[in-house]
Amino acid sequence: MGKKKAKVAPNNVAPTDASVPDALTGDNNDTETQTDEALEAAQKEAEEAKTEAAKEAKEAEEAKAKVAELEAKVKAMENAKAVEPDTEEDEPVPDEPEETVTIIIPSSAEFDGKEDVFLNANGRRFQIKRDEEVEVPMVVVNTLRDAVKTEYDRDKSGRIIGSRNVSRFPFQTL
Question: Is it the case that residue 43 has pLDDT exceeding 70?
Answer without folding.
Answer: yes
